[in-house]
Amino acid sequence: MEAIGKMKKLINRELSWLSFNDRVLQESMNKEVPLIERLRFLGIYSNNLDEFFRVRVANLHRMMGIRNQRIDGFKGSAKDLLSVVQDTIKQQRRYYDISYQRLLKEMEDQGIYHFNEENIPEEIEQDLYDYYHEEIKQDIVPIMLEKKRKFPRLRDKEIYLAIKMECGEKKKVRYALIQVPSQHERFISFQRGEKVYVILLDDVIRLFMKEVFAIFEVDTIVAYTFKFTRDAELTLDDDYSISMYEKMEESIEQRKKGEALRFVYDRNMDEDLLKFLKKSIGIEGEDHVAPGGRYHNFKDLMKFPSFGNSDLVFDSQPSAESPDFKNTTSVLKRVLKEDVLLHYPYQKFDHLVDLLREAAIDPKVKEIKINIYRVAKRSQVINALINAIKNGKLVTVVVELQARFDEENNMYWSNIMREHGAKLIYGIPGLKVHAKLIQITRVSGRKEQLITHVGTGNFHGGTAKVYTDFSLLTARSEVAGEVKKVFNLLENNIERATYRHLFVSPFNTRRKFSGLINQEIKNAKKGLPASIDIKLNNLVDNSLINKLCEAASLGVKIRIIVRGICCLNPEQKRLKGNIEIISIVGRYLEHARFFIFHNNGQAKYFISSADWMTRNLDKRIEVTAPIVSKKIQEELKFIFETQWSDNVKARRIDADQRNRFVETKKGEKRLNSQEELYDHYKRLSID
Q1: Is residue 316 part of a domain?
Q2: Rounded to an integer, what distance in angstroms lies between the CA atom of residue 277 and that of residue 590?
Q3: Is residue 553 in some structural domain?
Q4: Which domain holds residue 171?
Q5: β-bridge partners, 503
Q6: Is 638 left (phi over 0), alpha (psi -120 to 50) or beta?
Q7: pLDDT tens, 84-93?
Q8: Which CATH number is 435's domain given?
Q9: Do 416 and 509 share a structural domain?
Q10: In the chain, fewer beta carbons within 10 Å around the N or the C end?
Q11: What is the average per-residue pLDDT within 117-139?
């Protein structure tokens, strides 16, 4: 990525994302990370890369057809950028392969042995034979390939074995395909005493291929793995005669037929078979082709088993109980008294589910409104809402169908909730609903009470165990009243409101954040203390980046913690060293977004569903909420300072994107912020 160092102000978005994925790859090489967890980081890297191709590389291919297309942070065309992207991935892939081979050797030191169909240990031969015939055989569906026959439609993201056979005395060549069945575990293990033998499902199929194709009197048979990635863009037309749900169904079907963007294959594949596959799938040119190793789809490493050895995985870290709900019989009444901030996964997501469960049976609760972006496949949140309907509550659910790669799950839950009597709303045409809102209407006497949730993450019990996120629970009228306006907007589509306290995209978020930065600039010009602390997933928007650079050039001290993409180059001379940026990649995925503006000693605090990306500011419904509670403000300040002090998992973001770790100063203790925060919340739950 040497080219990045030549750029003055912006770092290219695609290259910055690859730099983020390189930070994930670094964790697979870190010997301080438990062995199996390092394998799982390789799986995360692979899964991330697949999505990158489906979305970002697909976009580059579309841009290649546009003349004079301007690309932020890159001097050259989309084709030039694609070439740099591919070179960067090839370089990372070499490190990936080295890391994987090292991990295999380290596993052998732990008594875990990887083998394939050519070196099966004698002591497990019979078990492997039995496993194949009892568990796998019936799910093997070979497809014979003929040049004159229509090529079958293949599924994106799946892995296939491309098979070449020579049959009979005339050595007739036949081709076939087998999809490696995804309903089975990819890694199959057999334990013998203190030894564990592991084989990939692909190799089990290879072992029995002659049996699968026995009718052809096969002389020689070989199988090569391949996979391909399609363009994942959904196209929703402006036909208002059909519903959003119907459009989404049709668009998902079209996604399954999208252009093949990346064809990854075993580099040892016979040339004739490779040529046949490329022509049949519709791969043209070499830009889409990536020769690889024997195995693909290593996203499955994310599920690599631990074989019951706790030394090979992270120590268990059960979420702590929030002290705000300790010895409390009513979650609703507790929130009516005082604001509560939950911090996942350090604290229990169950508290939020308990809020909905209580609302479902509280006779004083009349209505529940929620907007859903992503939920678990087995969702306690949805179950609580269904229970509320059964108890006579009016439940309104705003479902965002365009949650990338979760569309079908959201459509499934939409049907379930509709069948139970929920009022379903599919958002606003042209604006994705990405806010994380709940509002419970409770009537006590003649008084209406609005218990409100504003969060940074999805209502997903599974990701809440891995993603760091905030849930603000409040009954403050200034927040609750404006969240009510947001729900009115989502229900009516035409209602516009004034928001004095909330920042609501696309209406005032950009203007409000710009105003806060301008205030720090004014203070700096007067010689007053001026600083901004920012925690984000992605920093991309040019306008706000320019505003931050202006502030730094005038003396505002800015600290930024960004997990993923960061297009701001902090090493510009005009910034005078006033912007520092770090990224933390560790056990948990840093997902919470919050902001602290110094404001001349009267600091202003906010949490948000929105990253600083143009789409989040201008093309989505996002909500940023002020934090008024002094207690919660102190908590946010503590969280930021703890993360800023990280010298174990924090990397510096700089011009060349080298991901150098934050150095430990002489005499300074090592501090892993995620471990520090876990211990902090654990102590709070005990005190």
Answers
A1: no
A2: 41
A3: yes
A4: 114-306
A5: 624
A6: alpha
A7: 998 999 899 8
A8: 3.30.870.10
A9: no
A10: C
A11: 94
HSE-up (13 A, CA, CB side) for residue 670:
6
User: What tokens appear for 550 in the block?
Assistant: 């202006």
- The full length of the chain comes to 687
| Beta strand segments in 73-139, E | 112-114
Structure tokens at 27: 């964790």
Overall domain count for the chain: 4
Same domain, 649 and 679: yes
Q: For helices 542-553 and 509-525, what crossing angle results, to 10°?
A: 10
Of 379, 565, 340, which is closest to residue 458 (Cα–Cα)?
Answer: 379
Q: Which residues pair with 472 in a beta bridge?
A: 341, 454
**What tokens does 459 get?**
């209502």
**Three-class SS of residue 32?**
coil
The answer, yes or no, to whether residue 236 has pLDDT greater than 50, is: no
The dihedral of CA 346, 350, 353, 354: what is its sign?
Answer: negative
Q: Note whether 583 and 650 are within 8 A (CB).
A: yes
* Residues 6 or more apart whose Cβ sits within 8 Å of residue 236: 244, 247, 248, 251, 402
Calpha distance 656→19 (Å, rounded): 10
Does residue 314 lie in a domain region?
no
Region label for 430, one of left (φ > 0), alpha (ψ between -120 and 50) or beta (otherwise):
left
Closest CA to 403 of 182, 155, 158, 620: 620
Catalytic residues: 434
Same domain, residue pair 434 and 512:
no
Per the structure block, which two tokens stand in for 83?
């070439």
The one-letter code for the residue type at 548 is: L
Pair type for strands 172-179 and 142-145: antiparallel
Q: Do 450 and 479 form a contact (C-beta atoms < 8 A)?
A: no
Q: Which residue bears the tokens 């629970």?
A: 473
* Domain end among 492, 519, 540: 492
Mind listing the pLDDT tens digit for each residue in 277-316? Answer: 888 887 766 666 777 778 777 888 999 999 989 999 999 9
Q: Any idea what the Cα angle at residue 335 is, between residues 331 and 336, rounded to 5°?
A: 115
- Tell me, yes or no, whether 468 and 556 share the same domain: no
